[in-house]
From TrEMBL:
Gene: rbsC6
Domain of life according to the entry: Bacteria
Protein name: Ribose transport system permease protein RbsC
Compartment list: Cell membrane
One Pfam family named in its UniProt record: BPD_transp_2
Principal location class: membrane
Keyword Cell wall biogenesis/degradation assigned: no
Transmembrane spans: 28-48, 60-79, 85-102, 109-129, 135-156, 177-198, 227-247, 281-302, 308-330
Amino acid sequence: MTATGTGTSQRVVTTRSARANAHIGRHAQTIAIAVVLVALLIFFAFSADQFATTGNLLNLLRQIAPTLIVATAMTFVISTSGIDLSVGSTVALSGSLLAIVLQHGWSPTVALIAILALGALIGFVNGWFSSYQNIPPFIVTLAMLSIMRGTALRATEGYSTPINGDLWIVQIGQGRIAGVPVPAILAVVVALVGWLVLTRTPFGRYVIGLGSNGESLRRTGVNTRKVGLTVYVLTGVAAAVAGVLIATRLSSGSSNAGSGFELEVITAVVLGGTSLFGGRASMLGTILGALTLGVIANGLVLLHVSPFYVQIVQGGILLLAIFANSKVWAKFGAIRK
């Protein structure tokens, strides 16, 4: 009986150890980015005097809010093995048109609804061509990137359009609740909802299933085209929200806003462990990825490093993240399994 009991105990321990290793393997990249983020926070806290101050940290959260909001939606898109390169141009067009219609006397409420509807329309076009016409998302959204940026330039003629600071809508970008910037609160809410939808709803399972094996998902009766269309609508609306946040924070709309924004968003998502090939996603990783990019940009500025180097760093991080995503962590996860 003793030998049998010992053998059973060993099997239980072995099973638990295997489960723990498998769990670590599935979340290896998320754990890694969390470690990197903590290391960066410690480094900048000791090397930059103003970094760890309450004012700077709140400002950091406000700055990364647009990135986090769009990255949350982009996680769904990339999980389906798609991509949306038009988010930066949508940000520019949304902010520019918001400023223009407000100058023409539109009600801020009506203007806000119209801009969000515009974002949904842009996402619908991306999703319709990608999901229903089977045109590669890279091509579709690249074309939309050019169209939306050109439209923003035509609408503004290259000039920034000011927004009246007395309008209530400006508080979306500049306001605070209990000392916390409104954009930061909005970003946290969006990220939380995104996590719940991805991990706790059938739609989240459909998104992952579409990226891992779309044909099998279709045979179960799921309208995979509708799922694909929906994720692009989500990114369109999210980009419009980001455009509103940036325009109201700066009290002006500009066709130059959002330049390189798509790079930052995609980097945050991939850095967090979401596979560019679809079928694997981590909303927590996306949040950590966005925070990491924000900390790097903020810390480098406080260390008086030229802001021109920020994009160089982001590009390098994206390359390393893709390499780790497709090579290192994939092999690590396979070993753990």
